[in-house]
Amino acid sequence: MSLRERLILGIASSSSAPRGWNAQVRAAMRPEAVEWVSPFELRVTVETAPAYAIDSPETVVVELHPSLLSSQERIVASPALRIAALAGTAALRGPLVHTTERAVQHATRDAAAAAQLALEVEVGGGDDWEPSVGAAGAQTTALFLAGLRSAQDEATGWNAVVQPALSHAHVSAPHNGSVTVRLPQLCASCAGYEISSPETIQLTIPAEALLSKTPIPLAATIAINASAGLLQLGGSLAANATEADLRDAAPRELELRLSGDAWQPRLGQRGYGPTDALLAGLVPTDAQPGGWAAVVKPRLSPSSLRRLDDHTVRLTLPQLASYAIDRPETIHVSVAASAVLSGQPTAAALPLLVGALPGVAAIGGSLAARPEEGLLQSAAGSTLRVRLTADTWVDDLHSPAVFAALAAGVAADTDAARGWNRVVRSALNPSHLLRLDETTIEWRLPQFAGAAAVAVAEPADCAGDPADRVQPSPAPSPRP
């Protein structure tokens, strides 16, 4: 063996990896790679080795054989050559990668749910896990779990509630390049997981947990969406609001109260999109000419809205003298996702109800002009017209329930044997009733044998506003 070959043989790795230094680099070195520089220096040229691949760092030691030295003593060069393995690749898989706050809450209280919400971390690209990952008391396990951190830092979020409860019991041993992480079970008295905005869980696999001893920062993250909050209405408008309240000179307030979520900090600022989105979320079920859509909505502006705290905003309405409705308005209140920290839209469980003012009914027709017993007995018959002001009739007055209520409302103040109640009202049927327009109806009465005094009281369910009973004008009384 030549001296050059003996030198090459002494440049060796302590590892016997099949694609490591000894097998791929040293085996390819030729005596010509050794160059004499001076009595004190040799240069060894190492050619590229495309097949060289290691999954853990390799230490190469240069040991000089005595025959190479004038001292005839063996020398080990210092320092040793440490070759780091290339960083591997890693991927996150499993249902925990994209999940929700409620799913995490359930999984941290129910072991079966936790098993269904697991995270799989797969390592590849020529790297692998240290065998001790997942073992009790192993530093590799502790460091790996410490790498699962949220980019946010809420008081009851991942970093405060979930991460401290993770242990080796929640990490599987490596298998085919993967380890599985399950969520811990929180004790009954422990704080539960609760977030007001989405959380992003990041992972950097530490060098100690990998054979390559090179950390892997993952670009992929775990996304936990916050659950939508609950919205309730409060303030002076929320309870029994009426048309008169909006017309009144005193301002009226509507409070939007969140639970399980929080309003964006800038809500109420002019030029801020979520402010405009929230104001646009108050929508009536129908559009009346003098109602919410026509009168109130154009007056709403960022100056109407004030964020009182994380969970409450107040909408102040000025006097709206032109607000006029002929039937109750139902205002649905929806919250855009951009207006809350959770990023989840929500809506008030109960809408805002605005009652219409009672209308007024005026009596007309031939019977009102000539309220005589003889007119009711005449062969020509008679008419009784009822005209509404500040209200309208429902579309279908002939439906059984509406007609019965309307007929019962045309009543005499006495109950004579041959009077109105027993002779006229008992004979009324839908063919006698005409809806002339939305404010006027007419009873076309046939000939009757006789009738007494008449009183008209239109029931609430016959007028367009089912919440208010129409107030009648004085009824005509047949003259003897």
How does this structure look, described?
It is a single chain. This protein is α+β, with helices and mostly antiparallel strands and 480 residues long. The protein folds into 4 domains: 3-83, no CATH class; 89-225, no CATH class; 230-355, Immunoglobulin-like, CATH 2.60.40; 360-472, no CATH class. The chain is 16% helix and 27% strand. It is built from 13 helices and 30 strands. The strands form 8 sheets. Strands 8, 10, 12, 13 and 14 form a 5-stranded mixed beta sheet that branches. Strands 16, 18, 21, 22 and 23 form a 5-stranded mixed beta sheet that branches. A 5-stranded mixed beta sheet has the order 27-28-25-24-30. The radius of gyration is 43 Å and the shape is rod-shaped. The model is unreliable at 452-456 (pLDDT under 50).
